[in-house]
């Protein structure tokens, strides 16, 4: 395991980090940053654990993307664009929505499950005023730029399900802001469960 000497870009405090995560959190000033492709300080928050389940506790990272979606044309056979239209203001063709993109490597089924769960039924989570440092952070493997591309893919998968068959959709998706959210989870019997 490689240990890398890092200086915080905000306070210049040196610290050491195991090279398993792509983001670094300064314990001195609380700044979080990423070094590749370029040095960037990240906006982030941790959510409080609200549930108590069996298993190990972790913080799972997600990119919360505040997006503007505009649907120019859609055609569905045997159904309607229910999920996305319900998120847009008044079921219209344009609006702002938060899309949650898991920032860790998951199976396609788990990736879709977690994105759907937080995008369509976001929990009423409290932002942690004091982060429990005994709870490990799962390493960020999906960067911000990749998350932007995955958001486009997720919009299509939201609508490519029953009851209708999506035949044609033309839309624009613009990411307005991005924030790294650490969601509390429990790992039990080879599965993650929400802790909020």
List its traits.
3 helices; about 200 residues; 2 domains; 3-stranded antiparallel beta sheet; 5-stranded mixed beta sheet; alpha+beta
Describe this protein's structure.
The protein is an alpha+beta fold. The chain folds into two domains: 1-42; 43-194, no CATH class. The strands form three sheets. Strands 6, 7, 8, 9 and 10 form a five-stranded mixed beta sheet that branches. Strands 3-4-5 form a three-stranded antiparallel beta sheet, with no helix packed on it. The longest helix has 16 residues, at 144-159. The protein is globular. The two termini are 33 Å apart. The protein is 18% helix and 41% strand.
Can you summarize the main beta sheet?
5 strands, mixed
Count of individual beta strands = 10
Name the beta content range: 35-45%
Distance between the termini: 33 Å
Average pLDDT? 82
Give the overall shape: globular
Helix percent band:
10-25%
Summary, kept brief:
This protein has helices spanning 82-87, 108-120, 144-159, and strands at 3-7, 14-18, 23-25, 32-34, 40-42, 44-46, 56-77, 94-102, 165-188, 191-194. With 196 residues, it is α+β, with helices and mostly antiparallel strands. The chain is globular, with a radius of gyration of 18 Å.
